[in-house]
Specification:
Layout: E1 6-10, E2 13-14, E3 20-24, E4 27-32, E5 39-47, E6 51-61, H1 72-76, H2 87-104, E7 111-112, E8 127-135, E9 138-144, E10 151-153, H3 162-177, E11 192-199, E12 206-212, H4 220-228, E13 233-240, E14 252-258, E15 262-266, E16 269-273, H5 286-297, E17 304-308, H6 314-319, E18 325-330, H7 333-345, E19 351-355, H8 358-367, E20 374-377, H9 386-394, E21 399-404, H10 407-419, E22 422-423, E23 426-430, E24 440-447
Parallel strand pairs: 4-6, 7-23, 12-13, 17-18, 17-20, 18-19, 20-21
Antiparallel strand pairs: 1-5, 2-3, 3-4, 5-6, 8-9, 8-11, 9-10, 11-12, 13-14, 15-16, 21-24, 22-24, 23-24
Helix pairs in contact: 8-9
The chain binds S-adenosylmethionine.
The site of S-adenosylmethionine has 20 residues, from helix 6, strand 18 and helix 8.
Domain TRAM: 1-58
Binding site for S-adenosyl-L-methionine: 280, 309, 330, 378
Family: Belongs to the class I-like SAM-binding methyltransferase superfamily. RNA M5U methyltransferase family.
C-alpha cells in the first residue's frame, strides 16, 4: 500500500474517534467520515507500520444509517464528527465502546445499560471556544480541520446554543470593524487567539472571554464596551496567554466590563461560574446525569460524602441536603472559591471545598483518620491516580460513585478498586456530547461484604 493509491474498502467498524475502520493487505485502514457497512473508494493519505489513513473519494454503497449533513465542515473539522450518523446509532456506538472496553478487561459480566439520550441533539452546548485567525486576508472564527491548525471558517457551530453563535458572530464583526489583529501562530504575533462564550440556560446571562496574546492593545477599551452592549452579555473578560503553546487559556484573567461571574442553575440550586471554572456543557442533560448518580448512591442522612474533582461544587451541593456533611477537593482555586460561594448563595451550611490535587489531599485526609460513607469522583479524561484510589479506599467508603468522560481510564480505575475490595455490576453511558464520539458514563462501586 502506498500514499495516493486508490483502493476499494469495506468498512467494518467505527474507531473510538469516529473514523471508519477497514482492513487491507494486513493493515488497519482508518477512513475519515466512513460508516460501518459502507463500500467506499478511498485515497490512501498516510501509511504506517500497522495502519494507514485514507479519505473517501466516492461512497459506493452508503450505509442506511448515514444522514446527510447540511455542512460537511461540521464532520470534517471534528466539531461534530458523528453528525453523519443517525442519533439512535450514535447512542448504540457509545454503548459499544463501553462494552468493548469491559470485554478487553475480562469484565464481560458487567451489565452495560442503554445510553441515556440527550434531550437536545444539536444546539445543546452552553459554551463555545473557537479559534480566531486570518484566512485569505480576512479575520475569521471557525474550527481547525482535524489533526491540523488550518482554520475552517464557520458561522454556525451546530452543537452550541444558537444564542452563543449569535454572540460569537457579533464579536467577530466588531474585531473586523475595529481592525483588531487575529493571532498569527507562525510568527507568534497579533492579538486575539480564541473567543470563548458561555451562556446560562437558566438566566440567559452571557460571558465573553477574549483570549489574547497581550493583555492590552489600542482598541481594547472600545472593544470591551461594544461587546458589553451585545444583547445578553453581562461579563467581558480578557484571558492573557502570552505563551507559544497549544494550550488555549493563559493563567490570568482580567475583568473588562460587567460582572466577574455568570449564574446558572442545576435543578433548584444556583451556581456562580468564573471564567476558568468547569461547568458541564450540556445544561439539559446534566441534571439527568447527577440524578442517576445520586439515586444509585442511595444516600443516608448520617453520611459523610466526598466530592472529589468538584469543580464549582455542582455534585456536592446537589447532595448536601440528603447527607450530614460534604467535603470537596478541586485544583482550580477560582472554582473552589465559586464552590464555597455557591454553598452560601444556596444557604447550604454542611458543604465545604478546599483547593488542591485530589491525589495529594485525599491521602492526608485518610492519614488523619477520616471515615467516609460515599465518595463521588468526576475526574478529567486522564482518570484517577493510584495514590488517590488507595487513599479513597483507606477512608472505607461503602460506595464510590464514578462519573467519567473517558471510559478507557474509567475501566482501568475500576479494576484497581476491584483489586482493593470493591465491586460493580452495571454501568450507564449518558450522552452529554451528541454528534461527537465522546462518551460519559456513570457507575457505582460497592464495598464487598
Ligand atoms: C470533569 S470536571 C468535573 C467537575 C464537577 N464535578 C462537575 O460536574 O461540574 C473535572 C474537574 O477536576 C478538576 N481537576 C483536574 N485535575 C485535578 C486534580 N488533580 N485534583 C483535583 N481536581 C482536579 C478540574 O479542574 C475540573 O473542575
Amino acid at each position: 500500500m502506498q500514499k495516493n493509491q486508490l483502493v476499494e474498502l469495506e468498512i467494518t467498524d467505527l474507531s473510538y474517534e469516529a473514523m471508519g475502520v477497514a482492513h487491507l493487505d494486513g493493515l488497519t485502514v482508518f477512513v475519515n467520515n466512513a460508516l460501518p457497512g459502507e463500500m467506499v473508494k478511498a485515497k490512501i493519505l498516510k501509511v504506517k507500520k500497522n495502519f494507514a489513513f485514507a479519505k473517501i473519494e466516492k461512497i459506493l454503497t452508503p450505509s442506511p444509517d448515514r444522514i446527510s449533513v447540511k455542512l460537511n465542515q461540521w464532520v470534517q473539522t471534528g466539531l461534530a464528527s458523528l453528525a453523519h450518523l443517525t442519533y439512535q446509532k450514535q447512542l448504540a456506538f457509545k454503548r459499544m465502546q463501553v462494552v468493548n472496553l469491559l470485554k478487553k478487561a475480562h469484565l464481560d459480566s458487567i451489565k452495560v445499560n442503554e445510553t441515556v439520550a440527550s434531550p437536545k441533539e444539536i444546539g445543546y452546548r452552553n459554551k463555545a471556544q473557537v479559534p480566531v485567525r486570518m484566512v485569505s486576508g480576512k479575520l475569521e472564527i471557525g474550527f481547525f480541520r482535524k489533526h491540523s491548525h488550518d482554520l475552517v471558517p464557520l458561522e454556525n457551530f451546530f452543537t452550541t446554543d444558537p444564542e452563543i453563535d449569535r454572540v460569537l458572530l457579533a464579536v467577530r464583526d466588531l474585531l473586523r470593524e475595529m481592525k483588531v489583529p487575529a493571532y498569527d501562530e507562525l510568527h507568534h504575533k497579533g492579538e486575539v487567539r480564541y473567543l470563548e462564550v458561555r451562556r446560562s440556560r437558566a438566566t440567559g446571562e452571557i460571558m465573553v472571554i477574549l483570549i489574547c496574546l497581550h493583555k492590552d492593545f489600542p482598541q481594547l477599551r472600545k472593544l470591551a464596551k461594544a461587546i458589553s452592549q451585545i444583547s445578553g452579555v453581562v461579563s467581558v473578560v480578557l484571558n492573557h496567554n502570552p505563551q507559544k503553546t497549544n494550550v488555549i487559556l493563559g493563567k490570568h484573567d482580567y475583568l473588562l466590563a460587567g460582572k466577574a461571574q455568570i449564574v446558572d442553575k442545576i435543578g433548584d440550586i444556583s451556581f456562580s461560574i468564573s471564567p476558568k471554572s468547569f461547568f458541564q456543557i450540556n445544561s439539559l442533560q446534566t441534571p439527568r446525569l447527577y440524578d442517576l448518580a445520586i439515586k444509585q448512591a442511595d444516600l443516608k442522612p448520617s453520611d459523610v460524602v466526598i466530592d472529589a474533582y468538584s469543580g464549582i461544587g455542582t455534585i456536592g451541593l446537589s447532595v448536601a441536603k440528603h447527607v450530614k456533611e460534604v467535603r470537596g477537593i478541586e485544583i482550580i482555586d477560582d472554582a473552589v472559591r465559586d464552590a464555597n460561594a455557591n454553598a452560601q448563595l444556596n444557604q447550604i451550611h454542611n458543604a465545604s471545598y478546599v483547593t488542591g490535587k485530589a491525589e495529594e489531599i485525599m491521602p492526608k485526609w485518610a492519614e488523619s483518620g477520616l471515615q467516609t460513607d460515599v465518595i463521588f469522583v468526576d475526574p478529567p479524561r486522564k482518570g484517577l491516580t493510584e495514590e488517590f484510589i488507595k487513599a479513597a479506599v483507606a477512608t472505607q467508603p461503602k460506595k464510590v460513585v464514578y462519573i467519567s468522560c473517558n471510559p478507557a481510564t474509567q475501566v482501568r480505575d475500576l479494576q484497581m478498586f476491584m483489586d482493593l475490595g470493591y465491586d460493580f455490576h452495571e454501568i450507564t453511558p449518558v450522552d452529554m456530547f451528541p454528534q461527537t464520539p465522546h462518551v460519559e458514563s456513570v457507575t457505582v462501586l460497592e464495598r464487598k461484604k
